[in-house]
Amino acid sequence: MAMAGATMHHRTADFRALYSKVLADLRVFIGTRNDVILFTSSGTGAMEASVCNLTSPGDRVLVISAGKFGERWEALARTFGCQVDTIRAPYGQAVSPMQVKEKLTPAHSVVYMQATESSTGVRHDVASIARLLKGTDTLLVVDAITGLGTTNFNVDGWGIDVIIGGSQKAVMIPPGLAYCSVSERAWRRMEITRNPRYYFDLRKERKNGAKGESSYTPSTVLVAGLSAALDYLREQGGGDLTAGRDLLIANAEKAALMTRCAAQSLGLRLFAEDSPASALTAIASPKGMDSGKIVKLFRERFGAVIANGQGEMKGQLFRIAHLGFYDYLDTISMIGALEHVLIEAGVEIELGAGLCSAQQAFTVLEQAAA
Amino acid sequence: MAMAGATMHHRTADFRALYSKVLADLRVFIGTRNDVILFTSSGTGAMEASVCNLTSPGDRVLVISAGKFGERWEALARTFGCQVDTIRAPYGQAVSPMQVKEKLTPAHSVVYMQATESSTGVRHDVASIARLLKGTDTLLVVDAITGLGTTNFNVDGWGIDVIIGGSQKAVMIPPGLAYCSVSERAWRRMEITRNPRYYFDLRKERKNGAKGESSYTPSTVLVAGLSAALDYLREQGGGDLTAGRDLLIANAEKAALMTRCAAQSLGLRLFAEDSPASALTAIASPKGMDSGKIVKLFRERFGAVIANGQGEMKGQLFRIAHLGFYDYLDTISMIGALEHVLIEAGVEIELGAGLCSAQQAFTVLEQAAA
């Protein structure tokens, strides 16, 4: 409704006030004192901005890659002429801080990583990796497109130089906006880097953002939608946006735990067993079965959308999101439907076992919180 | 309403069908057999794509500049390491084909220009400039962000290699999408160019577009809105999108002529006297008056938004759009309001003179069409 009503022109006092308000709210949502920058693009646009603004051709960078989005960092850094060293975890596993410690050298100008790798459902230990960079000149850039609003970050305390989010994830509005916060030392780095940047020029956006404007025509309707979504979170937090954001994270953690418990009690294997994210749960397809069958049955029988694996992982796993509005009711109903889908696909399970396990997980969490 | 109802995920058969339909409709709207590419960005994103995909560092390019958007081509081409030759017209004037003929050499790999320069209200003679490039290896890139849907183009006949549009202009939906068509020789050029491109990689988008997908998460709601807008134009054209597009252009031409006649009969000077665009009319502020006063009175007295000048032109002119839905009623009411605003600002005019002149212009056009 906020989007449908957003008919203002972007070069007006009304829109400048809205834009400034959204930038200020995003700061609180991210939990940082750093400047926040907004782009009209998918999240990949802010990833590109983190490469073209922070590097020069020939720079050596370290990419922590645990899936398709880690591979995107590699492709982006190579596109802009960087020498890329990659620490690669097999799909379904996380890169450990120990591996980073072994590989990291002062020659690395930037470390690029995902907080949560949504192609595999893995969570990275951002805090420990950030600790390795303390006191060095290496910048830390974290793609938290599915991490923000599902995972706790201490952005300034840990020293995350750039953290990236997207509008269609935990902030619950349609795709089309990317945002990131940028640290003082990242701004200083931009004074010496030489890769070309125009649409994704962070410094230009910072300058215009201070006046409540974007450099180029922004997606006005999505900015209005984002404002309403952040107001909703503030309301959920009893007038405190940070509290609302923390409830959102706790909600994702709860839905993720319920889903993991249910999957395991149904005899399914978690694709990201050792370090699962709260943003989504990736579940390995039962042996010998193409996961597309499960995705298809979900849609046909229940009108519900779950995701298949990406790229080479297609057919091997299915992914269930816990971002934003998904709550207890959505999670329980999805698990109930999953049981029917599995039986229809020919998997032997005990009907109700997943539901019961999810309810138990919920009860434990409720008791712990009480 | 179409946007509010667009809740589909972008990696589904439903969305692929919608995306393919929009790309096919845009081809008809642009009037080309070339591939059409869509980006989630402002129009500037497609301008950047036309530079980073079609040039290598050191390439010599020719920019035709008649205002702020021509200057954007210069800045973009320099950002990507091009040697930029510029033919510059004073603000309010167009660059003539003769000037281009004198300056153009076989060393120019690309000519960048605006069809309509919306900072000054000037129209360029795209057909004549395109003719100069026939039989040469120089590509022609036309920013028609305000040109498409307000101006006639024979894209393939004239040989426009890339023509660029934006969602918030004549196609009447909110900002956030850019689109362009790309010729075969432009695709071939991309095989040898070496500037970095990732988010705005045209070839990647072409490959994915053929499958009904975008490379990165698209602004799904705006794609749904664009589809509905193009359906509306098709309906206006009695089931023929080309006919609907031509009505849209005729409507802009009519509103522009009415506005120009009204302004002149009120003793105002057209900022783009010799070669005015139909996309918008730029009117010079009465002598000694800051045009901001007129913009402000419009907003305060009538809740209407007209635009001030941009950059150095701020205060010198005001701009009235004729894009998309603006029709006879909007144009007449705006002229009526302008007369009151001018009187309130202390300009001596004859009340009703602008309205009468606009009505006469309308009558002449109606009779000519009959």
Task: Give the arrangement of secondary structure elements.
Two copies of one chain form a homodimer.
Chain A: H1 13-30, E1 35-40, H2 43-52, E2 60-65, H3 68-79, E3 83-88, H4 97-103, E4 108-114, E5 116-117, E6 122-123, H5 126-133, E7 139-143, H6 155-158, E8 162-166, E9 177-182, H7 184-189, H8 202-209, H9 220-236, H10 241-265, E10 280-284, H11 291-302, E11 307-308, E12 317-321, H12 328-344, H13 353-369
Helix pairs in contact in A: 1-9, 9-10, 10-12, 10-13, 11-12, 12-13
Structural overview:
- The structure is a homodimer.
- The first copy, chain A, has a seven-stranded mixed β-sheet, with helices on both faces.
- Chain A has helices at about 15-30, 45-50, 70-80, 95-105, 125-135, 155-160, 185-190, 200-210, 220-235, 240-265, 290-300, 330-345, 355-370; strands at about 35-40, 60-65, 85-90, 110-115, 115, 120-125, 140-145, 160-165, 175-180, 280-285, 305-310, 315-320.
- The first copy, chain A, folds into two domains: about 15-235, Type I PLP-dependent aspartate aminotransferase-like (Major domain) (Aspartate Aminotransferase, domain 2, 3-Layer(aba) Sandwich), CATH 3.40.640; about 240-370, Aspartate Aminotransferase, domain 1 (Alpha-Beta Complex).
- With about 375 residues, chain A is of the alpha/beta class.
- In chain A, about 45% of the residues lie in helices and about 15% in strands.
- The longest helix of chain A has 25 residues, at about 240-265.
- The mean pLDDT of chain A is about 95.
- Chain A is globular and about 60 Å long.
- The interface of A and B includes residues 43, 175, 196 and 219 of A.
